[in-house]
Amino acid sequence: MKFLRIIVIAIFISSLQANTDSDIDYKNLAPIQTKPTPDSPTSINNPYIYEPTHRGRYVLTSTGVIVLGTIAGAGILYLMPESATNWNKDDIVNLGKQWRKNVSRAPVVDADDWFLNWITHPYWGAVYYMQTRVAGYSWSESVLYSAFASAFFWEFGIEAFAEIPSWQDLVITPAIGSIFGELFFRATRHIQANQNRLLGSKILGKTSLILMDPIGMVMQDFGLAKLVGISNKNQTQSFMIPISDTRGGVGVRLVLAMQW
Fold it and tell me: What is the pLDDT of residues 206-259, one digit of tens each?
């Protein structure tokens, strides 16, 4: 279980008019800046909200996880009945030759089940989108990444070993997936801002986070990000606030916020 701890250290220096310690009104110390804005250095970001310290490295590492997951997913689909995937297993023999044959043809309108076309593919488009969005990139950059991943990781990548790329998957996966992805991103931020709770339940909150970003679970919860030198920039924060008392003394308050 993680906790948020805020440590406050006050360093007070009396003014020239204060001759003795008895002249300092310690009970009435007050911050000189009493209303910090969200952009000021005296505001604390919620340490439960994950923001990686290296966004490029985060995306590169999560992309590696996606590639491995895509290969594993293709293996699972291969084991499924042909009626569910529309893959002709007799054609999946000479993989190199079959792949070149399929990618050299123009994309077609496939006959996949509606669940695959309208649920599964957009879901993974959303997962692709989440990787760059969580890393700190804009929504437009995340849309481009989702389109790139959908096309080259799957349609012209793994799935091309089994069938010709399809127009539905090339369009629906990143288009609808990016809409879902932005909804996932905002929902994730909402849950994290509430200490990983949804409707007051931490189990429901963590389950939702895993479903919306399974790659993020591997990166953040399983510690893969830390293994490659990435940490949460909100986990440890510090700033100083000028303070004063009623007799003109001035000082500094050091605030250290940590999550552990």
Answer: 999 999 999 999 999 999 999 999 988 877 655 566 666 566 666 666 655 555
Q: How far apart are CA 251 and CA 32, in angstroms?
A: 10
Which H or E run contains 193? helix 167-193
Residue 14 sits in the same domain as residue 134: no
What are φ and ψ of residue 126, in 5° steps?
-70, -40
Regarding whether 200 and 163 lie in a shared domain, the answer is yes
Is 258 in a helix, a strand, or coil?
strand
Is residue 104 in some structural domain?
yes
Q: What is the largest CA-CA distance in the chain?
A: 94
Does 250 lie in the same domain as 183? no
Q: Are 257 and 49 in contact, with CB atoms under 8 Å apart?
A: no
Judge whether 157 lies within some domain. yes
For the chain, what is the domain count?
2
- Dihedral of CA 161/167/172/178: which sign? positive
Same domain, 193 and 120: yes
Ranges 104-113, 179-188, 229-238, most confident: 179-188
For 41, the token pair is 């250095």
